Amino acid sequence: MTSIAAGLLVLLFRLLRNLNPDRTAEIAAGLMRGVGRFLPGHRVARANLQAAFEDKTQPEIEQILKGMWDNVGRLMMEYAVLDKLWDYTPTVSSVPRIALSSTFVETIKGLQRTSGPALFFGAHLANWELLPIVSAVFGVKPAMLFRPPGPNPVANEIVRLRSKVGGCLIDARSGAALQLRSALRHGLFVGMLVDQHSVGGIEVTFFNRSCMVNSTLARLARQFDCPVFGGRAIRIAGGRYRLEFTRALELPRDQHGKIEIAGTMQFVTSIVEQWIREHPEQWLWMYRRWR
Predict the structure, then answer these.
(1) Which residues pair with 143 in a beta bridge?
(2) CA 139, CA 231: separation in Å to the nearest integer?
(3) Residue 112 falls within a domain, yes or no?
(4) Could you list the residue range(s) of the whole structural domain that residue 99 is in?
(5) Which among 32, 136, 183, 285 could disulfide-bond with 143, CB atoms 3.0 to 4.6 Å apart, if both were Cys?
(6) Residue 291: inside a domain, yes or no?
(7) What pLDDT digit, counting tens, does each position of 97-151 carry?
(8) What is the model's pTM?
(9) Domains in the chain: how many in total?
């Protein structure tokens, strides 16, 4: 993407903040459903789906692909209004945009009573940005591992929007390990996404195929022996979402009682796989997860 295109995208983000978010999301979703099949990632996404779901028919695969592009379109528009998506007010009787599961509320209340540390993992499902945003509303402000998109103007705009809703971002490109350990030592809550290919990672099985995953989550859990939670956002009818946390996971341990690195990452990856199986159209299939 050229600097001119990046500047235009940033301008578009700012213009969208003055429009109706539901209407613009519908328009963007319809646009992406139409043009997505012509984009380079579409072929990769189809191949991934066919390999992951050998029992699905071609029409079923195409329906998932259409849903994936619908989700991508909505997500693009939602980035412009991240700080406006949480609309719950206790004194208003209307249904809020974001529903919270009982385990989400239970986990948040537990974290409000503790000083941490704790670890959270998620995946590129629906709008994954909502979990740290809503958690911050309740005073649980996580430090999120963040890989900025290029080029810099786009990354800077996303960081600016994210900074308005609490928490902090840790750049995954340099010095991230030291910052993550520092955050945990200070009793903070640290979150990261664990569903993409990682050069130099460890091998796990994902949809019955081997792939490489970053082991940072497990290594931090082993070092600090702190609670680990999974979290996801789910798109539901009416332009709404439901947020869920798992309860603290019982991670596999070795004969000395230490958390196992490989076993933990396989456990976490299996949870992510189950989430994707439940809502395959809400995951980003266009990435080369298996190599």
Answers:
(1) 168, 190
(2) 17
(3) yes
(4) 3-282
(5) 183
(6) no
(7) 888 999 999 999 998 888 779 999 999 999 998 998 888 888 887 888 877 666 5
(8) 0.90
(9) 1
Backbone angles phi, psi at 87, to 5 degrees: -125, 20
pLDDT tens-digit map of 66-111: 999 999 999 988 887 877 777 655 454 456 788 899 999 999 999 8
Kindly state whether residue 263 falls inside one of the protein's structural domains: yes
Token look-up 């692909």 returns 65
SS3 of the chain: CCHHHHHHHHHHHHHHCCCCHHHHHHHHHHHHHHHHHHCHHHHHHHHHHHHHCCCCCHHHHHHHHHHHHHHHHHHHHHHHHHHHCCCCCCCCCCCCCEEECHHHHHHHHHHHCCCCCEEEEECCECCCCHHHHHHHHCCCCCEEEECCCCCHHHHHHHHHHHHCCCCEEEECCCCHHHHHHHHHHCCCEEEEECCCCCCCCEEEEECCEEEEECCHHHHHHHHHCCCEEEEEEEEECCCEEEEEECCCCCCCECCCCCECHHHHHHHHHHHHHHHHHHCHHHECCCCCCCC
Retrieve residue 58's tokens: 């071609």
24 CB burial (10 A radius; 0-12, 13-18, 19+): buried
How far apart (Å, rounded) are the C-alpha atoms in residues 187 and 113?
A: 12
pLDDT exceeds 90 at position 174:
no
Cβ-based neighbour number of residue 259 at 10 Å:
20
